[in-house]
Amino acid sequence: MTFFLKLFIAFVLVGINNSCTQAGNNRIYFPASKMTGVNFKPTFPNVFVGIPRDLYIVENNLMILDEYEGKQLTLVDLNKPSNVQRLGTKGQGPNDFLRISNLSYNPQNGTLHVFDEYARRQSSYSVKDRKVVFNDANLRKKTLLENTIYNVIPFGDLFVTNGNFDGKQFALLNEKAEVVEKFGIFPGNKDAINTGVAFYLLNQNRLVVNPQETHFAAAGFMNDHLVFYGKKGDSVEKLKEYFNYDTEATPSVRDQGKGKLYGYSENENTMRAYIDVYATETHLYALYLGLSNADLQKGGNSPCYILKFDWNGNFISGYKSDVLLLSFAVDETNGKIYAATRPSIDSESILVECCFE
Question: What are phi and psi of 225, to 5 degrees?
Fold first, then answer.
């Protein structure tokens, strides 16, 4: 969530779908009749957090990706919330991490995958008796992926990653970080496609794999683009795609020493679409905003939405929250959604929860 959260907090603190429901200033392209209001309330008052970047449910623990007191993860036992652990030491030791950017958990084999974006290293650990411990005894394997840039998530025997691969949005990698397959054409404006990394930054997306590692989805942060893929033999196939608008931003590429500096510039009409995504074994949940920078700067109460899909990409239902959420996790077993929010630009982040059906 590296790019996404920094940008979002700065302003807060297969069918093509063309119908739009206006809710306040939000643009939402899924039927309001399938949205249920949910009431988030503060939870875990004794758990102090910094700026949570992601939340996960791992064996009845709430795992919070959040740099706090020299650790990068906070673990709350949902059976006994007073039991709180801080783990993921920041450092260069054998089981330390420079910066954890994403995690994924496979409950079928009890494996937690941790990706260190600065070290470009994927580490896989066994989770035994609901305990998460980063040590050599629980380490299953480490894989260096030095030639990759963005999200890297295990996908069966391979890895799936996002970026700009000769104009394609995604790639499958082997354990040597060699590209096995490039795929995915961005359906919107492709005028800047030859700017390489800048084109990806302009159309950056959140990438998430289901726990069984058979399907994945990608959701655009600034453009309204959501796409689903599934395994097909040794390859993948696109299952469903939603696209409603391009982002309004300008890519840039500048020389810097012997290399290039890639970026983009925004304006008041630049949108915030999908803020976060969360995978369970049966569903993909997407946290959707649909507001422009100008809307965010006005302040006030604007709802956000948690959209629910099956892994074939079919929209099922959604939940409307009047609390502006930054990240979230869904506990389908116990019917709860946990999230992080920031009540005001001057306040600390807090954890909230709600019940859902």
Answer: -135, 125
Residue 180 CB neighbours (<10 A): 12
Closest residue by Cα to residue 343 from 2, 107, 9, 5: 9
Tokens representing residue 311 in the block = 């892994």
Of 213, 211, 2, whose CA–CA distance to 127 is shortest?
211
Q: How far is it, in rounded angstroms, from Cα 342 to Cα 90?
A: 25
> Strand, coil or helix: what is 101?
strand
SS3 350: strand
Q: Which residue has the tokens 């000769």?
A: 166
Tell me if 332 sits within 8 A of 280, measured CB to CB. yes
CA dihedral sign of residues 163, 114, 222, 237: positive
Pairing of strands 35-38, 315-321: parallel
DSSP string, 171-239: EEE-TT--EEEEE---SS--TTGGGTHHHHHHT-EEEEE-TTSSEEEEEESSS-EEEEEEEETTEEEEE
Residues β-bridged to residue 41: 353
CATH H superfamily, domain 2-355? TolB, C-terminal domain (2.120.10.30)
> SS3 of 149, please?
coil
How far apart are alpha carbons 189 and 205 in whole angstroms? 15
pLDDT tens column, 192-220? 888 888 888 888 899 999 999 999 999 99
Global pTM reads 0.89
Q: What is the structure's pLDDT at 262? A: 85
| Tens of pLDDT, residues 243-292 | 999 989 988 888 888 788 888 899 999 999 999 999 999 999 999 999 99
Q: Which amino acid would we find at residue 58?
A: V
Q: What is the pLDDT of residue 43?
A: 96
Q: Which amino acid is at 199?
A: F
Residue with tokens 């309004």: 248
Q: How far apart are CA 31 and CA 50, in angstroms?
A: 35
**In 10 A of CB 324, how many CB atoms?**
19
Locate the domains of the chain by residue range: 2-355
The span from the CA of 119 to the CA of 67, in Å, is 16
